[in-house]
From TrEMBL:
InterPro entries: Daa-tRNA_deacyls_DTD (IPR003732), DTD-like_sf (IPR023509). It is found in: Cytoplasm. This is D-aminoacyl-tRNA deacylase. It comes from Elysia chlorotica. The keyword Transferase does not apply. NCBIfam families: D-aminoacyl-tRNA deacylase (TIGR00256). One of its GO terms (cellular component) is cytoplasm. Its main location: cytoplasm.
């Protein structure tokens, strides 16, 4: 799972002429979901988003407060293109979770984040839609974070591992 965290003065998402989310000070987060992501990766990314110290305190001490400390907002945008690689000059999206699975995963991601902060402070775009993301970066501050999923072990690999352990 990957997230691009941007500290913003304001951010909004529109689909066509409709604004689906809009925040003032806070974080704009682009979220990429890998095909092997689990709750473990999700929980790590959420913890980092909510606790990363990107804001100054009252005494202007930099990098000392999180979005939760400041009572700021977070707008999340699902972006499968974060899980791409280049095959020549063409993007390859094989590592991204399928649309159907990632929709469920992303909804759980949002609900989990809301349960760990204030639900009214968490907004998002429109999953799967062609969106326009409008941000006014603050700094600019942009922090990429990633937690690579553990590659699932096939039944053949489990069997091979069990056989090799028996040989010792």
């Amino acid at each position: 799972m990957k997230a691009i965290i941007q500290r913003v003065v304001k951010a909004s998402v529109t689909v066509g002429e409709k604004t689906t989310g809009s925040i003032g000070h806070g974080l704009c987060v682009l979220v990429g979901i890998h095909r092997h992501d689990t709750d473990k990766e999700m929980e790590y990314i959420i913890r980092k988003i909510l606790n990363i110290r990107l804001f100054s305190d009252e005494g202007d001490k930099r990098w000392s407060k999180s979005v939760m400390d400041m009572d700021y907002e977070v707008i999340c945008i699902s972006q499968f293109t974060l899980e791409s690689s280049l095959k020549g000059n063409k993007p390859d999206f094989r590592e991204a979770m399928t649309a159907e699975s990632s929709k469920t995963f992303y909804e759980k991601f949002l609900e989990t984040m809301k349960s760990q902060y204030k639900p009214e402070k968490i907004q998002d775009g429109e999953f799967g839609a062609y969106m326009q993301v409008h941000i006014q970066n603050d700094g600019p501050v942009t922090i990429p974070i990633e937690m690579k999923p553990q590659k699932p072990v096939s039944s053949q690999e489990k069997s091979d591992a069990a056989c090799s352990q028996g040989d010792t």
